[in-house]
Design a protein that fits this description.
The protein is α+β, with helices and mostly antiparallel strands. Helix content is 25%, strand content 32%.
Amino acid sequence: MIRVFGMFLILMVALHAAVDATAIRSADTRAKRDIQNVQVYEAILYAFKVDPKSPTFLTKGDRIFDAPRDAISVSSYSLVEQEFIYSDYKSSAAKKYSAYADVAGSYGAFSAAASMEVSHSSDSSLRTVRMDAVTKAVEHQVSSMHGFRSFPEEYLTENFRRAVDELTVEQIEERIGVFYARRMNLGAEVRKSYIMQASSDDTDSSVTAELKGEYGGRMLGASATAGVGISARESNENLDMRVEWSARGGDASIWLASSLEGDNVDSVVQEWRDSVNQNNLEPLDYELENLWELVKEVNPAKGAEFQAYLEAKWAEETNAFNPDHFYAPIEWCEHAGSFLYIYAGPSYDNLEDAKEACLDNPQCNGITQEPQNNNIYTLRVGPEIQAWSARGETSWTLCSAEVKWCKHNNSYLKSYSNEGTHFSSLTKAQRSCAKNSRCNGITREPHNNNRYTERVGPQLRRSSDGETSYTLC
C-alpha cells in the first residue's frame, strides 16, 4: 500500500496489480512485462544522496547491492494524487519528511534540502511556515523482501566493500550516498513550495486559505512558475515569501508550456501523467535506512566514523537556521499631555519620519511633539514619560513587544553581541536583540547608568554587581 501523509486527492485510479499475480496472461505479455521491469526493480539496488534541487530531496547515488529478481517485489499502479503539506517551526518540513521516510532521527539530513528559510537576506530571527503543494503520478512500488530485506549486508557489491575500506567518509557521502531504501514508489512528481515569514496568527488553515486565494484551489497559480522568487506575502506586505517550483519524472515541459487556469489544469495533469513511462521514472516516497549501518557491517570503525561525521554535519545544518520569534508589528503608544527628557537627535516636521528616525537611533526612546515650536516632532532619550506637560505636549513610545521576556534578578549573560551599542530603554534593547542572530538576551548594567546591553550568553550567571538580565521565555 502506498504511504501518503497530509491531505491528498486521488484524481485517477486505473490499475493496482502485482507483477507476479496469478491472473491469466499470454506468455508474450509476461515476457514483455519482465523486460520492462528490469529497470524498475533495479532502482532499489542503489544508495541515495541528499539533493536540495530535487523535489523529493534525494537523488540516486552509486549501486551498492547485487540482489536477484526474486528478492524484490514490484507492484504496478496507475494513479495521480495531490497533497498539501504544512510545516512550521514546531514541525519542520525536514522533520516531517524524515519521519515519513522512517529515518526520523536523521531529520537534520534534510534541513538544507527542505529548507524553512525564506532567503539569506531575510531576517533569520523570524519564524517561518512552509506549504508544499505536491502532485504525484505513481506507476510502481518496489520493495526488498525475504533475505534481502532481513539481511541486506549479504547482498553488498564488491565495489561497495572496497569503497568502504579505501574512501574517506566525505568521499563515501559524495560518491555513494547516505541512505539506502527498503521500499520506494516510482513515477513522477511536481512540487510547488511556499516558504514565508510568519506571524503568531498563522495556522495550517489560515495559510491554506491565503495561498488558495492567491494561487487557486490547487495552489499552482496561473502557470507552473507563477510567483516563483521572493515577494511580499498577500496577507502582510512586511513579511517575505519565497516560491519554488520543481519537477522530476515524466515530461516536465508539459507543465511549463501550459496554462493552469480554470479547468485546464485537469487536462495538463492528465497529459503529464500519460507522459510517464519506463524511460523517465523517478524514485518517490522512500522507506529509508541509514547507510552507515551497512558501512559498519564491512568496517565497524569506518561505519562509526561515518555516522559521527554525518550526525555532526546534520546538526550544524539544523542549527544554521534557528529563528526564535514571530513577526511582531511595531506599535507606538500615544501619551497626551506628556513629554520625555533630553533630546536624542534632530526634529522632524511629521510623526512618521520621526518614528523611523527614532527606530534607527539607539539613544531614542520616544518622540515628543512641541506645540510651542510649530508642532515639531523631537527625538527624546527619556525613557520615563513625564505626564505633566504644561504646554500641551504629546509623546509617543514603543508599546510592549508581543514576545514575552523573563526577568532574572542578580544575573548577567557573557559577551556583548553588539559591541559598542547600548540602550537606555528595555523595549528598544529587546527589539534590537530580536533582529540580532547573535543576541540571546539583555543585561542591565547598574554600574553603567543602568544601560541595557545585548549579550551572547546563553547561560545565565550570578551577578555580584546587582545586574538584571532578560531572556525570551
